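Annual report, structural modelling task.

Input specification for the magnesium ion complex:
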Amino acid sequence: MKTTESTTEQTQSTTTQESSTGAKKSTWKLQDFEIGNYLGKGKFGQVYLAREKRTKYIVALKVLDKEQLKREGVEHQIRREIEIQSHLRHKNILRLYGYFYDRQKVYLILEYAAGGELYKQLQECKRFSEPEAARYITGLAKALKYCHDRNVIHRDIKPENLLMDSNHDVKIADFGWSVHAPTTRRTTLCGTLDYLPPEMVEGREHDSTVDLWCLGVLCYEFLVGEPPFMAPTQEETFKKIKDVDLRFPPFVSIDAQDLISRLLVKDTLQRMSLTELFEHPWIVNNCPAQ
Ligand code: ATP
Ligand code: MG
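The model returned the following structure:
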C-alpha cells in the first residue's frame, strides 16, 4: 500500500542526487542519514553534520522549523532559496543537493564546508593579507559571474554568508535574498546595512551590479578589518553610502585602493564589471593562478 502524509514521516522531496554509483535518488528521508556533530545555529534552525547511510557521503543538514518559517513569513523566501541554489553548480557556490520535509521540519541537504565561516576566520586574524584577500575575491567573482550569466543576483554578499572548504576555497552560501533578474521586486530593501549599495539605500531599482558593490565592500573589509561605511548610527551609515565617503588606511596598497574605488561607484553604469575585475592589476598580481 502506498504511504500517505499521515502514515509516514517523509512526505516529499523533489530534488535528485546522483550517488557515487551514479544512481539517482529522488526522495530523501531523515532515516537515510546518520546525524553527527552540531555545526551551528541559524536564524531559522540548526545545522548538523550528517552522513548518508548508503554512500557514506558527508553533508550538512540544515533543519528548519516549519512553524517558525510560517510565523516569520519567510516560506516564500526559503522556497526561492531552494529553487535557485539547487540549480547552481560551481566550485565557489555551496551545493544544495536536495531537500525533504516532514510534518514539522524542512531539511536542506547541503555541501559540508569543513573550513567553517569566513567571518570567524576574519575575526581571528582581524585582516587578510592582500594575496589571501585577492584569492577569496577572485573565487567570489567567478561564482558571481556564473550566477549573473544565469540571471541570478545574490544581493547579500557579506562575510557571514561565506563558508570555506578544507582547501580554503570560499563558497557562497545563503541564497535567501537572491533573485532571478529581471524582477518586479527590484527595489526590495535587503541585505545588511553596511553592504547596501546606494541604489538600494535610495530605494531605486537595482540590477546585478549590486553584487559588484558588495564585492567592493567585502574587499575593503577583508583588507581593513571593518566595512568602509561603518558609523555609530544607521542614518550616518546611509549618508556615507550615498556620498560614497570612502577613506583608506595607509597600509592598503594603491592597487587595492584602485580596485575598491572602481567597485564602490555610485553610478551603476560606471561601476567596474566582473570582466574588468579579472583583468585588474591587483587581481592579476596577487592571484596569478586564477
Ligand atoms: P540564515 O542562513 O538563516 O541567515 P545563518 O547564516 O546565521 O542563518 P545558517 O546558514 O543556518 O546560519 O548556519 C548556521 C551555522 O551553521 C553557520 O554559521 C555555520 O557555522 C554552520 N553551517 C551552516 N551551513 C554549513 C555547511 N554547509 N557546512 C558547514 N557548516 C555550516
Ligand atoms: Mg546563513
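The longest helix spans residues 130-149.
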